[in-house]
Design a protein that fits this description.
Layout lengths: L13 E4 H4 L17 H11 L3 E5 H4 L6 H18 L5 E3 L18 H20 L4 E5 L4 E2 L7 H22 L4 E5 L8 E2 L4 H8 L8 E3 L3 H6 L4 H10 L7 E2 L18 H14 L5 E3 L9 H27 L1 H12 L12 H9 L4 H6 L4 H12 L4
Length: 389
């Protein structure tokens, strides 16, 4: 039987977190519907569905109260499972949101002891990730926010966050871990407001750090869509800045709680433009699926969910190739390019050229007269996505 062209391969770099396939379906209105999936079993499941790698929070793998001998045994067993199943660990992260101690934040808490503990916990999580060869360390500040701004001045919170990041960068360098830190934004939930709500906010913050060269971002589809923003634009800004260190793929209906839906299951056209961008620019990092299966599913359904994430990405990758090679679309893009023959109408500022620009007369009516055919271009995109072209 011929191999399905949408079968995932290692070169696609599809990864899942232990917390994704291991999600038990618990929500604020109902308890878990699936039994606990041990990390070793999660690795075997990911190998079965064709994934490339697995990522984890520190306590996804090692319970927070594990003794040193218990930790070491867990690490040995997990390493053996990864090696046996050909699964790698490209990214690690830290859980600074679950335990009650983080109820008022971790790095931004008003309690200096909580802030110090948060940095210590992160350092140990970095140690754990380094044992598996992880080179990306994601930081999501799920509790770094407020319900009332009366608790602290927001500029003080930013200073505390900067202090923690600077410390962690130096720790990574001192240990020769080679980490790139990827900061993950979210507008709200579980806090009413999170201090770094968008990818753009983090990109600005990174420029204020002592080691900005090793800090980038980890945009997530759901987190950008929650507030109605365009994920592809956030990713493009990060890419253009050289800061797209990791990416979280899932889906989300705008304006709702964080749904973490199967990739492209809610906003197919938005997912298409995202995949097309990543493939067109040659992004070579992991395609990490930070999502989970419906609460209706057993673990066979979780496998269907994981396969679906990867399959849909590959289908959209093929659709992007078709879009790029479509003769009518190419003709339209060539027509657009005619109005931009030199790539820039300005160039670098020079006083003489500026004077020429000020003296030039533009025919506004002529410039505005011609239709741009974007309706047709978008419909051709829809035709490709719907499989009628």
């Amino acid at each position: 039987m011929a191999e399905d062209k949408y079968t995932p391969k290692p070169e696609h770099k599809f990864t899942f977190g232990l917390w994704t396939v291991g999600n038990r379906g618990r929500d604020p209105f109902g308890d878990a519907v699936r039994p606990t999936l041990p990390p070793v079993e999660a690795v075997r499941m990911l190998a079965e569905v064709g994934a490339y790698g697995v990522n984890f929070h520190d306590n996804d793998l090692v319970p927070i109260d594990a003794t040193p001998p218990e930790r070491d045994q867990i690490v040995r067993d997990f390493k053996a499972a990864c090696e046996e199943n050909g699964i790698v660990v490209p990214m690690a992260t830290v859980n600074l949101f679950y335990e009650p101690v983080f109820r008022d934040g971790a790095f931004t808490s008003n309690d200096a002891s909580v802030r110090a503990y948060s940095v210590q916990k992160t350092m140990r999580a970095m140690d754990l990730g380094a044992e598996f060869g992880a080179k990306v360390f994601v930081l999501w500040g799920g509790r770094e926010g407020v319900e009332t701004d009366g608790c602290r001045r927001p500029d003080e919170a930013i200073k505390r966050l900067r202090e923690a990041l600077n410390y962690l960068c130096e720790y990574s360098l001192s240990q020769n871990y080679g980490y790139k830190f990827a900061l993950e934004a979210k507008p709200n939930e579980p806090r009413a407001d999170i201090y770094m709500p968008t990818t753009g906010a983090y990109l600005a913050f990174i420029t204020t750090l002592d080691r900005p060269e090793i800090v980038g971002v980890n945009p997530e589809v759901a987190h950008e869509h929650m507030s109605g923003l365009n994920m592809t634009h956030a990713v493009a800004q990060a890419w253009e800045a050289g800061k797209l260190f990791h990416i979280d793929l899932n889906d989300q209906v705008p304006g709702r709680y964080d749904q973490d839906l199967r990739f492209a299951s809610a906003n197919l056209k938005a997912a298409f433009w995202l995949v097309k961008f990543l493939e067109d620019v040659g992004y070579d990092g992991s395609r990490h699926f930070d999502a989970h299966a419906y609460r209706t599913e057993d673990y066979e359904g979780v496998k269907d969910f994981a396969r679906g994430c990867m399959r849909t990405y590959l289908i959209l990758k093929e659709k992007a190739r078709q879009w790029n090679n479509d003769s009518e679309i190419k003709s339209m893009l060539a027509d657009i390019a005619k109005n931009n023959p030199n790539g820039s109408a300005l160039g670098k500022f020079e006083k003489g050229k500026a004077a020429s620009l000020l003296a030039k007369e533009f025919d506004r009516a002529s410039l505005a007269a011609k239709g741009l055919q974007y309706e047709q271009l978008d419909q051709l995109t829809i035709d490709i996505l719907l499989g009628v072209r």
